[in-house]
Automatic annotation (TrEMBL):
Domain MIP18 family-like: 11-84
Superkingdom of this protein's organism: Bacteria
InterPro entries, per the entry: Fe-S_Maturation_MIP18, FSCA_dom_sf, MIP18-like
Protein name: DUF59 domain-containing protein
A Pfam family assignment: FeS_assembly_P
Amino acid sequence: MTEEVIQEIGDKIVRVLKTIYDPEIPVDIYELGLIYDVFVNEDNDAKILMTLTSPNCPVAETLPVEVEEKVKSLKEINNAEVEITFDPTWTQEMMSEEAKLELGML
């Protein structure tokens, strides 16, 4: 795969991630800073490294599944796997300027 194709697939994944919202905060998980990294290998398998706002997050069971399913729905992706990490711990500083503006923090 060329660098351009990889970038295109990455952009599509980001667009899909921006359709998933944290149920407690009216901002998508990408702008919230919950997505730490996205990897796509030569077999078009995606791995998403993400965190939750807290280990006790009410959607700890369902949010990773929703992320996997939505990323897998892209025709370019064969499989998707989500890995949850709490290192580093999520803080409000990880939110994008857009998210902070949306939440009245700027």
